[in-house]
Sequence to fold (947 residues):
Amino acid sequence: MVLSGVGLDESVWGKSRGLDPERAPYPLVRHLLDAAAMALHLWDVYLSDNQRRSIAAGLGFGAEPGRARAVVGLCAGLHDIGKVSGFQFCSRHGSEYLAPSLGGDRAAMGAERLGHDVAGMRAAADVLAVLGFDAEGETVAAERVAEIIGGHHGRFYRDEGGSGSPFLGGPAWAYQRGAHAVAVHELLGSPSAPGSFKAPAGVLVTGVVILADWLVSQSGYLRGRQQALEVSLAAHFARSCADAPGLLADAGLVPVRLRRKAFAEAYGIDGQPNALQRSIMQELPTAAAGGGGGGILLVTAAPGDGKSEAALEAERVLSEVFGTQGLAFLLPTMATSDQMYGRIAQALVRQSGRGAGLTLVHSMAWLNSAYADETLEAGQQVVTCDGDEAGAGRRRAQADMRPRQWLRGSKRPLLAQFAVGTVDQALMSVLPVRHNALRLLALSGKTFVVDEAHAYDAYMQVLLGRLLNWLGAYGVPVILLSATLPASVSDRLVKEYLQGAGHRRDSLSKRTFPAPYPGWLYVDGATARATQISPARRLEQAGERSMRLRVVVEPVVRGAGQARERLAVIERLVEPVAAGEGGTALVVCNTVGDAQETYLRLRARFDDRSHADGGMVQLLHARFPGDVREARTGEVTQGMGRTGPRPARRIVVATQVVEQSLDLDADLVVSDLAPLALLLQRAGRCWRHEHWWARHGYPGGRGRPAWAQEPRLVVLDPLAEDGAVPRQWGEVYSAFLLDRTSVKLGELTAGAVSIPHDVQELVESVHGTTAESFDWDAFDSRRATAWTAHQGTQLAQRGQAGLVAICRARSVRGLHALHSLPGEEDEWETATRLGAQSVRLLCAYAHADGSKTLDRAGTEPVPDPGAGHKMPAAAVRAVMRRTVPVSADWFHAEDAQTLAPPPSWAEHPMLAEVRVLYQTVEHGTVRAAAVGGKTLHLDEDLGLVRH
Fold:
């Protein structure tokens, strides 16, 4: 039996490494009280209304949120109880201060090694019994708390050991665990055990515990507390409660309430909202009113119709209804995320949101020019483990690039009130990786926006559906934006959300949720009631944005000297821009190699000046170094954006990087054949701002050239007239989808598409359920092979995603199901996208004198501080900004030594994975390097060239 305050030994330590070595380590009970105090403050300030409701309901305290709050505090206050174990001997400094009465079991306790998280999970049942959690009906709650204790380092475990482990020690150690627990329990007001503890609520509570632990484990804070410990635990807890607001504010996690402004002022738009946006502002509040279980909104409209601003207005409405704080705005690529980050930042500033946490969330986010070098210097380290407990090889140098601002640390950016990034960062929350519970906590408190929802393959759609299922369970409002989403896909995503919200699959199978085009569909999470944009607003939007797009199919072939040779056709099509009245043209190629070849041909024919010299022909693709690509993207979007100034003559040759979210307007768009949904995306860059300019005037008064009488998309079709998919395209696109698109283009009435009226029907004809069947009576071996391969790929992708994704929210019984795969998977070991793995390649230069530099001129040495020395933040940026993403398939095993980075990079979390290609410089000339059976060289104008 443990008596209150009797026999608690503060020599049992909780934190040692990184603190003052001249003082005793930080007592465990005080760290537990720090975490409990922070968890209470997170409940009060950081958690959103819907998160508090979800946790309280999951504990059976729906009408008593205060009781749920206390249980959350208790879980945080017990998270490190497993350190009252053989853990105490893993640090020489810590064990030196341990009371002699606890040293007798040392030899026996050392016979087994456990992480203190697992030790805490195994000891939890006995500890909770001391607190009275062993009554009838409370065993489920006790088991859940044990899982949370075991999962506070980011991975849940199945409890298979029990409390008889030698690592936990004998009666004296058991008494201390009970004494520590009683001290925390009493200072929290002796919260009672909940009668239930559902798994989704347990996941959120684990996220709170992890976050609380991180915030109070910052070395600077711990050193300050270590210097002057309060006399009593009650006084210590009071100080911890008083400190929590400052720690949360310093981390940038205190939510800011925006001062909402009128539409034009909020988004810096010179004009009024369009019909779609007005409908969301005026009609969505009524549709969402009274909802208590979240809801999902699907917004459909043609490219350039202002879906992003519509989403931000919808966030304003839904956050008010459901009590979420901020938003997560997710996009398909890093480039589109970078663009949206700037737009969201400006919108926040205009609405007094300067103090709000806003982060860019993708693997290379810190390279964005918005993140200055000085913000990358090392900041406070979080003391997460001590001594030798971390396994060999697992302690990678995460502090070397720790951002000064807390939110830019590892795994933290999604925690910000406003987060913009790639959808991969969100999908990681439904994969069995460490800290997926923390990611779910981060996402479940915000309105969740997915842009370009059509841009994901079958594998990613399954993962997205699984994430929507969890968000539905938490009552999170979700917004999906798309220009070309098949009805079958949107229907599946809506139903996944509703299943998470508690609706039965069999009842949902009898319903469909068709979305109007253009317009919006809102489905209430609690009732599954569907509401659409009003017919009047839909017709108004269609009228405001109507456009008759002329679609011209040009049959092309590969090989010089032929009349329909692809490059010759492109020359003819863009000649009016280069040699006539001028204007702008966008040429979209399916591969980087094709784009480079096309660019060189057009330069030779029309303007031999390079991009850097201001030539009229420009090149944009993903195989430029990061800094070059960012600069080129800015130049292209400025010259062909809405505000201008528009160039007199401009031909942009690009790849798929221009398909999504880039604000471009061209007089003419020429595109290689691609699946129809993507062609419509590319066509969205043709006359994109014509309606706006018709009302407000063309930038600089420069209108369309006389040859551009109508918006025109020219499709270069190698399949026309019984052609075949070019070998150079490889498996970029499904041969079946290309064939279906080619056939459909040939069937267009009068060679035109009415936008938006024809869009959905065209998408369904190629990508919808009707396209999934095959007419075997009209047998064609080539098409049958393509159809079979396409269907097989789709099934394989869905199946693989189903195998790796965590269970649906309401199917989870034990939290170990969130880490059901073997091993210790982390982000770098699990894929959110299928296909060849990408690696970062640094193209450096080897000179005759033996020096190796980042630049061709030889003035910037490759950073190599040597073993045991830290790499300066600016040097890491200099390297990473010059890297190029390439497929890992490019390289063979025998290339590993050739491409190895300097040895001093091996322990750096980013540089260790970089491959370095040294190009030899001889007499000022750069020679290509042979690797992987090909030659590679970085050309200043073309980017990375591979032959």
